[in-house]
UniProtKB/TrEMBL annotation:
It catalyses: 3-hydroxy-2-methylpropanoyl-CoA + H2O = 3-hydroxy-2-methylpropanoate + CoA + H(+). Residues 41-370 form the Enoyl-CoA hydratase/isomerase domain. InterPro entries: ClpP/crotonase-like_dom_sf, ECH_dom, HIBYL-CoA-H. Belongs to the enoyl-CoA hydratase/isomerase family. Pathway: Amino-acid degradation; L-valine degradation. The keyword Transport does not apply. Pfam families: ECH_2. This is 3-hydroxyisobutyryl-CoA hydrolase. The keyword Ubl conjugation does not apply.
Length: 380
């Protein structure tokens, strides 16, 4: 009897093993689950009540394991997903970061540094990395997915880079992937924080595939069952799931009718010129975008404009070094704290930006935000 069980286990294609949760934590639940299932490394972001928001403990769990899986000959593929059904990851835990910034805690430096190092590890990962972005995927959640080889969106995916609304900028490598989207789409998404849903996340080029949410369980099982899959084996499997997913297939891309206007109006040498273009255009769409930009941090808008302009011709690594400088400039400034207060703490949704107008943001202050931090620069 015992022998039969043992041999059944030995015959089993699965090696199912919980590696570690948060080993140093005294909490019962682990905020990130790291498991091997067959020859797959599976990461589950597991803070469902916080929409799987990424905090530094999670980064510190994930990074070493990812590096181990990259070298380990028994690991062929990595899959990352979110627990709870609502979110993949709604972003970084930036409230904690601004609190640290106020009290002079090192988290304000360490969080961005370690987060960007993780983003780079994903962007350079040597094996297939598949992010199942089922649900809210914003900011830091985008950084955990978009640089990997495969991003699978579902009808529940809600994508945005909403940082200009909180006095930050679209970081986690936003300066790399956004200017590489079609035309001026990335700059539009970066400045306005426009939200893309479902299939449109793929149509914009943020996701590589669209698969209906209910099929993800079966998809994950087949991914795990692949033996030493090449990138093209994974592509084939994802393509076949996509072909079976017909939901919303007839719906046109939400920005289809505006893409010409976006390319024309966001083609400019400055944020001021974009705002001017939008106001002069007179269409309801342009009007609405002008109203959106008027609510954003003027400093964030100018930093973001220049970040994407510079990032268009940089490597991911160069972009992350630049973004680390910008993150620290935001920590030294005013608007990031005010944005987090207005949107996440007091929730009055009426931040008082300083400076309050685009004209008030000097070229020099923008320039200084991009300056080298010398020995405190990010090293990859
Ligand atoms: C990260 O989140 C988990 C789960 O909510 C929590 O137990 C842990 O203390 C957090 N870590 C930090 C550094 O905030």
């Amino acid at each position: 009897m015992v022998l039969r069980v043992v041999s059944a286990i030995l015959r089993s294609p699965y090696r199912l093993q919980r590696i570690q949760g948060h080993m140093m934590s005294s909490h019962v639940g682990s905020e990130v689950l790291l498991e091997t299932v067959g020859n797959a490394g599976v990461i589950t972001l597991n803070r469902p009540k916080a929409l799987n928001a990424l905090n530094i403990s999670m980064i510190r769990c994930m990074f070493p394991q990812l590096k181990k899986w990259e070298k380990d000959s028994e690991t062929d593929i990595v899959i990352i997903k979110g627990a709870g059904g609502k979110a993949f990851c709604a972003g970084g835990d930036i409230r904690a970061v601004t609190e640290a910034g106020k009290s002079g805690d090192s988290l304000a430096k360490d969080f961005f540094r370690e987060e960007y190092i993780l983003n780079n590890a994903i962007g350079t990962f040597q094996k297939p990395y598949v992010a199942l972005i089922d649900g809210i995927t914003m900011g830091g959640g985008v950084g955990l997915s978009v640089h990997g080889h495969f991003r699978v969106a579902t009808e529940k995916t809600l994508f945005a880079m909403p940082e200009t609304a909180i006095g930050l900028f679209p970081d986690v490598g936003g300066g790399y992937f956004l200017p590489r989207l079609q035309g001026k789409l990335g700059l539009f998404l970066a400045l306005t924080g426009f939200r893309l849903k479902g299939r449109d996340v793929q149509r914009a080029g943020v996701a590589t595939h669209f698969v209906e949410s209910q099929k993800l369980g079966a998809l994950q099982k087949e991914l795990v069952d692949l033996r030493s899959p090449s990138m093209s084996d994974v592509t084939k499997l994802l393509d076949s799931y996509q072909e079976q997913s017909t939901l919303d297939i007839e719906k046109p891309f939400v920005l289809q009718q505006h893409i010409e206007a976006i390319n024309r109006l966001f083609q400019a040498d400055s944020v001021e010129q974009i705002v001017e273009n939008l106001k002069n255009d007179g269409s309801p769409f342009a009007q609405k975008q002008a109203e959106t930009l008027a609510k954003m941090s003027p400093t964030s808008l100018k930093l973001t404009f220049r970040q994407l302009q510079a990032g268009a011709t940089m490597s991911l690594q160069e972009v992350l070094v630049m973004e680390y400088r910008l993150s620290q400039a935001c920590m030294r400034g005013h608007d990031f704290y005010e944005g987090v207060r207005a949107v996440l703490v007091d929730k009055d949704q009426s931040p008082k930006w300083k400076p309050s107008t685009l004209a008030g943001v000097s070229e020099q202050s923008v320039e200084e935000s991009f300056a080298s931090l010398e020995e405190r620069d990010l090293r990859l």
